[in-house]
Amino acid sequence: MCRTREAISSKTLRHEKPVLSGRSAVLIHLILAALVISGAAFYIIFNRVMNRSQRTALALVVRDSGSDRVYGQWALNEGEEFAIEFIHSVNQSPVTEFFRIENGMIRSFAVRFSSFGAGMQSDFAEGQTFSRDGDAVFISDLNTSFRELNYIVGTVSDHFLIINDERISLRGLAGRNAHVTIFYRIK
Questions:
Q1: Residue partners of 114: CB distance under 8 A and separation at least 6
Q2: I want to staple 174 with a disulfide (CB 3.0 to 4.6 A). Which of 16, 17, 110, 178 is the partner?
Q3: DSSP for 126-172?
Q4: Would strands 159-163 and 166-169 be described as parallel, antiparallel, or unpaired?
Q5: Across the beta sheet with 70-75, what order do the strands follow?
Q6: What digits encode the pLDDT tens for the residues 150-163?
Q7: Distance, C-alpha 87 to centroid of its chain
Q8: Greater model confidence, 80 or 49
Q9: For residue range 89-146, what is the model confidence (pLDDT) as tens digits?
């Protein structure tokens, strides 16, 4: 009772019934086509919404002042703060400038530095508070707003962006002597 492969195949084929025929096949194909089209539509809409939300995200942006090349951006909401830390080029002492986002602008609200001297604030406007922080001078209640901040990244010492518990080297982002602009992007 040895059967050949051909005999088994021909016998099996004779007894098989078609899986789909006529209306059933057309209906299944229409359902599959509808699923593919709806999946593609969902994908396109989802990507557009995500891209739009990324474009309108609130962020602090560091870019090249000349070419507008973006070096980096960090999520930052209204009322949140960041700082720029550097060694002053003239008196060679550490300076930290503190900023807060208010009404879509960058507002300077305090500065900390080690000594008075050339290039450092030596007079105080009404309402500003002067205090000592160890060996450093701390001036608070500043009230100057900017659309953008412009820095030349140090060649001898670095500038650092301190944001969201992160300390970012501007020299590492842009290189020595780079002209960078820092601004708040709303849209």
A1: 93, 94, 95, 135, 136, 137
A2: 178
A3: TT-EEEEETTEEEEEEEEEEESEEEEE--SSS-EEEEETTEEEEHHH
A4: antiparallel
A5: 70-75, 59-64, 179-185, 148-152
A6: 999 988 888 999 99
A7: 26
A8: 80
A9: 656 678 899 999 999 999 999 888 875 554 455 556 666 666 677 777 777 778 889 9
| Residue 132: predicted pLDDT | 72
Which pTM value belongs to this model? 0.64
Q: Give phi and psi for 32, each to the nearest 5.
A: -60, -45
Strand partners, 161: 84, 168
Count CB-CB contacts under 10 A for residue 5: 7
Joined together, the tokens standing for residue 2 give 């040895």
Q: Which amino acid is at 163?
A: I
**What is the H or E stretch that residue 89 is in?**
none
Contact 101, 79 (CB under 8 A): yes
Contact 143, 127 (CB under 8 A): yes
| Cβ burial, residue 102 (10 Å; 0-12/13-18/19+) | middle
Rg (CA), the chain: 32
**pLDDT for 95:** 87
Q: Which amino acid is at 128?
A: Q
